[in-house]
């Protein structure tokens, strides 16, 4: 991220609902109600490996570009570039990969072409990284 002048951040909509259950594991999620017997088709909330599985999924989608101009943490994606032209290409590349994977971003939570944003509890800016003052305030 060093030397970057442009930052874009995406938040993926309904991220975890995109992960399909392994067919051999569906039976393990079977539950019964008064209306019938049900099995999950997607990873349900509460599974201990759910976040790790989703992170692996995102890493696979963005693998060619990870640590080059994009970082992903579960359903949050940050893109960083040194020039405006480069940033346009990077954003288009990531959007293309997300589209191929059937993922959509939450436009309300996304920020485009900014010089500062929060990510993983840090304030990331064109000047570097620092702790989020709101997080520090809670501790103090």
From TrEMBL:
<feature type="domain" description="Reverse transcriptase">
    <location>
        <begin position="1"/>
        <end position="124"/>
    </location>
</feature>
<protein>
    <submittedName>
        <fullName>T18348probable pol truncated-rice blast fungus magnaporthe gypsy retrotransposon</fullName>
    </submittedName>
</protein>
<dbReference type="InterPro" id="IPR043502">
    <property type="entry name" value="DNA/RNA_pol_sf"/>
</dbReference>
<dbReference type="InterPro" id="IPR053134">
    <property type="entry name" value="RNA-dir_DNA_polymerase"/>
</dbReference>
<dbReference type="Pfam" id="PF00078">
    <property type="entry name" value="RVT_1"/>
</dbReference>
<dbReference type="InterPro" id="IPR043128">
    <property type="entry name" value="Rev_trsase/Diguanyl_cyclase"/>
</dbReference>
<dbReference type="InterPro" id="IPR000477">
    <property type="entry name" value="RT_dom"/>
</dbReference>
